[in-house]
L-threonylcarbamoyladenylate synthase
Amino acid sequence: MAIIVSYPIPNIADMPLPSITKESLVIFPTETVYGIGAFLSNEEGIESIYELKGRENKPLSLHVANPAEVDKYAEYISPVAERAMALYSPGPLLMIFTAKKNVKLPGRLLMNGKIGVRVFSNFIGASLINMVNEPLVATSANLSGGTSPRNFFEVPEELIDGCDYAFDNGPTVYQKDSSVIDFSSGVPVLLREGAVPYDELKSVLCADIRRV
């Protein structure tokens, strides 16, 4: 059963929390939906996410605390992707890149040599990353096939019971899943239209964007 930490609170560092370590499994809010995550080096914890959710072999995404971290994991960031990062990182956009070949990453993060990376704007997730000094490998905190939780009370008890910490920050800002855009090829591809609409992306990025 998780230790449940309720907010609002001005700074996670002010909380009298027992030590959060690289082995901790956490439920946390983002600006879009609640997520469940394990730290990057915790491969056992990453596998636990699949077991708890009943998730198929879909890849998880990497969540980092600031945009400068993206370059550590992306082989190439195109000018269009750089514009997207300037506008939506941190923010509600998950960006897919070709993964750097010289960086060792858990297989659960990769699909066809690609990696999805997102930069938090919610301070709780960013604070957790900074406390442990490792990115979070994460996905939405729902059972496989279920609706992504927009509020803490929508997170399934089964997931809370399987985690070490669960952070309740009330309703999320956007009340939608993140938008997902693939920058790994010449033309960006919108894989999921969420908090950032297709028309907005096409307009502000000044680029042709395909959608599937």
Remarks:
- The mean pLDDT is 92.
- The first strand starts at residue 3 and ends at 6.
- The two ends are 39 Å apart (CA to CA).
- DSSP finds five helices and twelve strands in the chain.
